[in-house]
Amino acid sequence: MARDKHDVVVIGAGIVGxxxxxxxxxxxxxxxVVDDHQPGWAASTGNAGMVYPAAGEPMVNPHHMKAGIGWVxxxxxxxxxxxxxxxxxSIMGWGFRALFACTQENHTRGKAAxxxxxxxxxxxxxxxxxxxxxxxxxxxxxxxxxxxEKELEKIATAFSGAPGVEILTGDQxxxxxxxxxxxxVGAVQLTEGFTSVYPPTVCTxxxxxxxxxxxxxxxxxxxTGGVRxxxxxxxxxxxxxxxxxADHFVLAAGGWSGKLARKxxxxxxxxxxxxxxxxxxxxSAKPGQxxxxxxxxxxxxxxxxxxxxxxxxxxxxxxxxxLPRRIRALRKVAARYLKQxxxxxxxxxxxxxxxxxxxxxxxxxxxxKLDNLWLGSGHWHFGLTLAPPTxxxxxxxxxxxxxxxxxxxxxxxxx
Length: 415
What we know:
Layout (H helix, E strand, L loop, with lengths): L4 E7 L3 H12 L4 E4 L8 H4 L3 E2 L10 H13 L6 E3 L8 H10 L2 H14 L3 H10 L6 E2 L3 E5 L2 H11 L5 E5 H7 L9 E5 L4 E3 L1 H14 L3 E3 L4 E7 L2 E7 L4 E9 L5 H8 L6 E11 L8 E4 L4 E6 L2 E10 L8 H14 L8 E11 L6 E4 L6 E5 L5 H18 L15
Parallel strand pairs: 1-2, 1-13, 2-10, 4-17, 6-15, 13-20
Antiparallel strand pairs: 3-9, 5-9, 6-8, 7-8, 11-12, 12-13, 14-17, 14-18, 15-16, 16-17, 19-20
Helix pairs in contact: 1-9, 1-12, 6-12
């Protein structure tokens, strides 16, 4: 029998929402997860599947600002960063906040906070497996590949002497990964602190585990508004006419969090950053590990019976339109690093919305105006890695008012 009221309602069945529901349910609270699609439908399905805590840093920083201008001016459709001129007015406010936040001081502070938040992420994924969450994992290495000597020298200097890191020449890289092309001038091999997972299986595995824990999971639920009593959100209003009551509500809707926050009577400065992916089934060839295509910030990832290419950050508002020219551009980027782009039986093109805050730091905690509405969003490229620690932080805040990791840097009310 469906409950009239739950302790916690989680809005969003992506990886962050599912991880939050898992941690809350572990603490004995009744939980309802709602989404208008199946679990993991959006960015949680088509991402690169990398769990790499050491890479966590705000993507809003002086280096990316300078590089981004060069990318747009010199690389055309293959630029890692893309803008839609027609959509610029709708994200103008977000853009100005990003410009003001783009300082070295903010980046240093934000990176330190994200590193602490994600420190135990690999262990948390291992804990999922020990608790019966089944998913596909590939704990092999990570190879950052370069086609420009200057970029290689810069990264090699930064990683010099670091444990689990080896600097390779182009020939050494090709010897280990024969799929790499002749333009590769060198690579950085990572052998520690990284794993890759096939994202859909993580979401499916968590959803199945939640059901065994007594969590109520409902799809095809469209939120239209909220019932409020002063600073308290009493219930969600839905398109079916049903209301969903709870003591606490968690908004974990990725790129749609800003729109939903307004419907509920709150606000957050989160926009969608569109990424693209090509997934090839039964490919003619694939690498033995994850390949980072450094100059274009794209990724080639091997999964069971598949290879996936992901890349780009397109600021064009919140939409799910797949632009064929972006898919062509992603294929061209892959061709610059590989001897050939593998062929396969089928090929799936995908786009999804990364949730982007204007300062590059996730937004985790209590939301403005409503005392019992919580937010877990804004992770940019690090949603998969930071989902377990985000869920843990929210569960701790909801149940005790405090968190093991300092929640201050992630406070959604900073905007």
